[in-house]
Amino acid sequence: MKYFFENRKEMLVVNRSLNLDFESHLHEHTELGFVFSGTAVLNIEGESFELKKDDVFCVFPNVIHSYECSDDMDAAVLIFSAELFEEYEKVFRNFVPSKPVISGCTGIARELFGMLIGTPELPRNTQKGMILAILGIITDKLCLVKQDDCPVSTIKSILMFCDSCYSEPVTINDAAERLHLSRSHIAHTMRSKLNITFSEYINKKRLEKACDMLRTTDMTVTDIAFFTGFNSVRTFNRIFAAQIGETPVKYRKQI
Fold it and tell me: 228, 231, 221: which is closest to 253 by C-alpha?
């Protein structure tokens, strides 16, 4: 499975979503949503939660999550920086919801979500006030628990390092030296938080790039193998076939 760090620049985004399917990722913003109709599945760090009509869902900063199985979806999705809400900033930074989905949220909460997505011209301060009201309604129902002792900034640093260096002959020792972390700490962090090893993640990044190049360029398989960071064509072919299910040459021909 692919994970990535989403570097969001906007302080506040208000969206109406008709399809919640989204691959596994994490970001420094809080994600808050309401389901007007339809169903979907929210996955948070190994746990799955069904989303259905009148459910509120909340994902705190730097928590790995994804959405899938959207069906007839109509949902409001608010993505915002913790810095916008001083009253809740420490909560967002230090806790996570043990119950990220709250069922049967009708009444004021539903009305506020509806106004937020139905009135795009609302001033920013008005949007903030409405979101603050929603947070006041739902926070006690989220059953907040203390964040574990794995610093999220470590995960972000590791992923950003991998994303920038995967095309080089990089190892976990290189990451440890660059990030000033121990090799064992990086390995533990990736295994416990991402369920993947360092080398597996690097190879997945390389294969993603290789597949894109096979589809969009005329470069030879050999050139693509070395360009994406593999130390030999034999290794490239072996890993590609194991992960993609066919050789690079066959993959290109099918495209």
Answer: 221
The letter for the amino acid at 49 is: F
How far apart are alpha carbons 61 and 235 in whole angstroms? 37
- Residue-wise pLDDT for 30-41, tens only, equals 999 999 999 999
Q: How far apart are CA 12 and CA 24, in angstroms?
A: 21
Pairing of strands 4-5, 22-26: parallel
**H or E stretch at 129:** helix 124-138
Other residues' Cβ atoms within 10 Å of the Cβ of residue 95 = 17
pLDDT at 149: 57
What is the reported pLDDT for 2? 55
**Helix, strand or coil, per DSSP, at residue 34:** strand
129 pLDDT higher than 60: yes
- Size (the chain), residues: 255
